[in-house]
């Protein structure tokens, strides 16, 4: 590997598609909620595949909470075996996916696959009410930050490759060597990396488990709640308030309910055990 692998002036960057992406991708729940999945590490173990394997190997209703714990334990174990360390890269807010696309293109064009192993933009899916319509919003969970799993080389060429990527402003944790051009960033601890990646894995696995259960209804968990009925919140910050069931998610034992906060209807997700039916 050459000492200075910075890109040529005419290097092509993967920007056209990334520039057209909105910072938040809105998808109507009934149409495209499952089309865009959050980014996650250990991508060779897809959450859809894991969910289908679980349902195929289980007789009777699935214990969703146990299934999620088991999936996260496997993810943790797989994460430990991956080469390299995780680093956090600063980017311009709203350019996170552009940075990911450009860095992956530079990794290939500059022959850096042995050093830059994975680029992740953690995503999350939330429900919002817009114009009286419930929509699922897939958005960047940590605006202005991109996770990179990489191995350092003796000449720090990999660091320059990352720093020279358009829309990258630097690494988190490299201020201790500001007087040097080749600042060495501080990697995340294993627990820090896991804490940043696990929420996306959990959310995606839960969604895929619900989708797989719909295809195999005999696996579904029986529930007593119905859309449109009023319930009373019995646990959490909304305890004592009346809410209306907007969505029932039996596989995850959760409800999406609508309640009134400060005079406005607000949707939130609650565990079934945190609400009670009204007489």
Give a quick set of tags describing it.
279 residues; alpha+beta; Alpha-Beta Plaits; SH3 type barrels; 4-stranded antiparallel beta sheet; 12 strands; disordered N terminus; transcription termination; NGN_dom_sf; transcription regulation
> What is the fold-level CATH name, i.e. the topology of the largest domain?
Alpha-Beta Plaits
- Trace the largest sheet across and list its strands: 11-10-9-8-12
Query: Which whole number gives the mean pLDDT?
Result: 77
- What is the overall number of helices? 7
Q: Structural class of the helix and strand makeup? A: alpha+beta
Helix content: 25-40%
Roughly what fraction of the amino acids lie in strands? 25-35%
The largest sheet is: 5 strands, antiparallel
CA-CA gap between termini: 72 Å
Model regions low in confidence, pLDDT < 50 over at least 5 residues: 1-41
CATH architecture of the largest domain: 2-Layer Sandwich
- CATH top level of the largest domain is Alpha Beta
CATH superfamily of the largest domain: NusG, N-terminal domain
Question: Explain this structure to me?
Answer:
This protein has 279 residues and is an alpha+beta fold. It folds into two domains: 16-218, Alpha-Beta Plaits, CATH 3.30.70.940; 221-277, SH3 type barrels, CATH 2.30.30.30. It contains seven helices and twelve strands. The strands form three sheets. A five-stranded antiparallel sheet has the order 11-10-9-8-12, with no helix packed on it. A four-stranded antiparallel sheet has the order 3-6-2-7, with helices on one face. The chain is elongated and about 70 Å long. The termini are far apart.
